[in-house]
Amino acid sequence: MSDDPYLRRYDVTKGFSAGFLIPAGAALAAAALPFVFDEDVPPWVTISVITVIVLLAVWVAAAYRRAATILYEDHILIRTAFGTRRVAWEDVQEIRNERNPGADQHDLPKRVMVLYDRDGRRVGLPHLSEWAVDSLDEELRVVRDLWTRRRGEDWAPLPAVTAKLNAVTAKSEKAAEQLGLVSIAVGGCAVWPVLAVFLILGLNTDVLDGMSGNVMAVVLVSVFPAVSLLVYVPLALRRRRRRR
After folding, report:
1. By the 8 A CB rule, do 228 and 185 touch?
2. Which residues fall within 8 angstroms of residue 175, CB to CB, at 6 or more apart?
3. CA angle, residues 38, 32, 102, in degrees to nearest 5
4. What tens digit of pLDDT does each residue of 31-53 get?
């Protein structure tokens, strides 16, 4: 591919990611403000807090810059803030994109690339997420192609690891299904504020004067739930198909 000793490299050699560092820096700065503006806090405490926050910011920046996924002829090198790990191609059991646990709660990328080694351990690949690359699916295709061509002709999946992967997949799909049902329920409930406004207007104005009780019952019991289902169920099904 090139004169470089590696086949492919994912890191931040072209600069820092503003999408990561700016929010992190803002959060660290916000943590120091209460100490800076509180007159009752001794100066030495303020200085100590600011020093710790600055050191933490430097450490975060250094850790982010150090992290990398580097593909070599015979192994994958995974470098994080806490160490470096090498996984031989023949020891890789699977490479795939997965949902990132807790992504919604912590404002993290929803999909990341991971590998599973011969012991069934899940290893995240630094800088291979939907935030870090233009197309995570395309990068997965590239990485898997390198893996299948270099893992050896006698490579075979280990039954124990395969069983573990199937269990992880089933658990993930079950969680996604439950989340989809919750989304449908929440979406369906979104119609009830409209119903509340409808009732408030009807009770406080003459908008509903002359409307029979049967018509009102049909509107309340049938129309609003039907509209809710027509809107949210197709959206939920479409979202489920995209996951597959």
Report:
1. no
2. none
3. 135
4. 666 666 667 778 887 788 778 77
**Whole-number pLDDT of residue 2:** 45
Helices (H), the chain: 18-37, 43-66, 103-106, 136-150, 159-189, 191-204, 213-218, 224-243
DSSP for residue 102? T
Contacts of 126 (CB under 8 A, 6+ apart): 10, 11, 67, 68, 69, 78, 79, 80
Q: Helices 224-243 & 191-204, crossing angle to 10 degrees? A: 160
Distance CA 209, CA 95 (A): 65
Q: Are strands 122-129 and 8-10 parallel, antiparallel or unpaired?
A: unpaired
Cβ atoms of 117 and 146 within 8 Å: the answer is no
- Cα 132 to Cα 235: distance, rounded to the nearest angstrom: 28
Residue 128 confidence class, pLDDT cut points 50, 70, 90: very high
The residues that bridge with 75 in the sheet, in sequence order, are: 88
pTM assigned to the model: 0.61
Percent of the chain with pLDDT over 90: 30
Residues 105, 192: Cα–Cα separation, whole Å: 26
Residue 95 and residue 8: Cα distance in Å, rounded? Answer: 15
Band (19; pLDDT cuts 50, 70, 90): low
Number of CB atoms found within 10 A of residue 41's CB: 13
Q: How far apart are CA 166 and CA 182, in angstroms?
A: 24
Q: Say how far apart CA 235 and CA 241 lie, in whole Å.
A: 10
DSSP of 169-181 = HHHHHHHHHHHHH
